[in-house]
């Protein structure tokens, strides 16, 4: 089979072209948002929201309404509940998030188990991108476009919030509103990603692209571009891998994203693990001069000892 036939064969099937459109659209939205989540340290919040929407999806199926409505409502509700508990107790954020999302996830499982004939739990948990209809495609495209539009309009304010929340407050930005807006967009992005990879794996789409781009980028603009490019490539590769290897589409997409991260971590950056090992070998002192000073080993590196503050410190300093 030549390359052209290899690329065109899956596209002969309508369900695969729809799956490709939904997956790429969801991946792009999640990749853009993931850059802000990584900088602000909100990765766990993405995990919480993705699990907390399960009861909303289950109730939407039972009531016969679009699942996006139920998922978004419970996503927003989970965010509000986390904020309420944090503000009225001395518990740390990770503790509150863990309690809320596991409780809501368990409630969703209870609802699903009570109505097994109406709801396919596997489709909710792991997605059913090969079964999406044309209406589902339009729903994902519209919600995705809405999320991206808001992110673009508020890009500068959200970026300032991610890098320096105190400065954003000093210059007059409403940091509470911006935080709430970002969390609302997170809930909306989870809804967009559910069709592609399901509740369990959507968190990977919200973390992996931003984490991979963070390792490569030296500015936030480049981080956004790199995250989108890599996640689109991984999504397309995952769709083709699922077709030719006959494996779960959602799992294939997430595995491709994880593979890209692993490659970048090892060799795709100047301070990658393999590059560091190579430099250590090339700079090794000959055995005859082991007692001589190396000239650089005792010198301070200039930055490793300084507190990083936030993940955005590296981008800011660059």
UniProtKB/TrEMBL annotation:
- Reading the lineage from the top rank, the first entry is Bacteria
Q: Where does it reside?
A: Cell membrane; Membrane
Keywords, A to Z, come to: Membrane, Transmembrane, Transmembrane helix, Transport
Q: Does the keyword Transport apply?
A: yes
Stretches that traverse the bilayer: 20-39, 59-84, 96-117, 137-153, 173-192, 198-217, 224-243, 249-268
A GO cellular component annotated for this chain's UniProt record is: ATP-binding cassette (ABC) transporter complex
> A GO BP term, please?
response to zinc ion
Q: Which Pfam families match?
A: ABC-3
Chain positions covered by the region annotation Disordered = 281-318
**Membrane-topology descriptor:** Multi-pass membrane protein
The annotated regions of Low complexity compositional bias extend over 293-318
The family annotation for this protein states: Belongs to the ABC-3 integral membrane protein family.
Q: What is this protein called?
A: Metal ABC transporter permease
């Amino acid at each position: 089979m030549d390359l052209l036939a290899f690329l065109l064969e899956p596209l002969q099937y309508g369900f695969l072209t729809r799956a490709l459109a939904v997956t790429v659209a969801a991946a792009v939205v999640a990749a853009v948002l993931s850059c802000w989540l990584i900088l602000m340290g909100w990765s766990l919040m993405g995990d919480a929201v993705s699990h907390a929407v399960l009861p909303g999806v289950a109730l939407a199926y039972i009531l016969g309404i679009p699942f996006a409505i139920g998922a978004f409502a419970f996503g927003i509700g989970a965010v509000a509940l986390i904020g309420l508990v944090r503000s009225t107790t001395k518990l740390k954020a990770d503790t509150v998030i863990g309690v809320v999302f596991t409780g809501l996830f368990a409630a969703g499982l209870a609802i699903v188990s009570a109505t097994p004939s109406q709801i396919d739990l596997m489709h909710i948990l792991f997605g059913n991108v090969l079964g999406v209809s044309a209406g589902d495609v339009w729903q994902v495209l519209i919600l995705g476009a809405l999320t991206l539009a808001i992110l673009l309009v508020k890009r500068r304010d959200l970026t300032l919030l991610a890098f320096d929340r105190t400065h954003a407050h000093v210059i007059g930005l409403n940091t509470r509103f911006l935080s709430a807006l970002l969390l609302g967009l997170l809930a909306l992005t989870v809804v967009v990603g559910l069709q592609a990879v399901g509740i369990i794996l959507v968190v990977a789409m919200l973390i992996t692209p931003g984490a991979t781009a963070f390792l490569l980028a030296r500015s936030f603009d480049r981080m956004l571009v790199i995250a989108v490019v890599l996640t689109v490539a991984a999504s397309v590769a995952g769709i083709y891998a699922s077709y030719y290897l006959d494996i779960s589409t959602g799992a294939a997409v997430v595995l491709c994203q994880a593979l890209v991260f692993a490659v970048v971590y090892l060799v795709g950056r100047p301070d990658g693990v393999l590059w560091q090992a190579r430099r250590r070998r090339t700079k090794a002192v000959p055995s005859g001069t082991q007692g001589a000073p190396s000239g650089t080993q005792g010198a301070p590196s200039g930055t490793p000892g300084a507190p990083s503050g936030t993940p955005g410190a590296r981008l800011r300093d660059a």
